[in-house]
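FW: tagging you since you asked about this chain on Friday. Here's the raw sequence from the shared folder, copied in full. Didn't touch anything.
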Amino acid sequence: MDINIREYNDSDYKFVNAILNESFDVEKSNVSNSIAHEFVAVYDGKVVGYFYLLDSIDIVENIKCYFLEYLCVDSNYRGLGIANSMMEYIFDYSKKNDVKRIELTSNKHRVAAHGLYKKYGFIVRDTVVFRKDLLWF
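HL: got it, structure written out here
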């Protein structure tokens, strides 16, 4: 099994958008961001996974962090170790960049994802996430 994790590029857009739509019912914007590090998982020459890391700093503990977003794998390729490869890549990339913490949120219904996160040592925090979309016209 040959899984390659590499940086996202614009030619990956339609494949990533399909995976995001299937996994989260969202569409990817074409906007790039200097604090976001985007990656794809490629299996047999096909883009089958996606995630991105946002730069963050815990100013209380003064440590560099990443916030992991939208880790997902095309449903046709789940169970092949692709998510595991992505997690290993995330940890290697974090170590190279002197990142001390990775945080993420996950929908309570994504049970398989929770198993993956726990397998890699993530702990469930006693918290509630709030969101307010600000719609300015």
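FW: The two ends are 50 Å apart (CA to CA).
HL: agreed, and The longest strand covers residues 46-58.
FW: great, closing this out.
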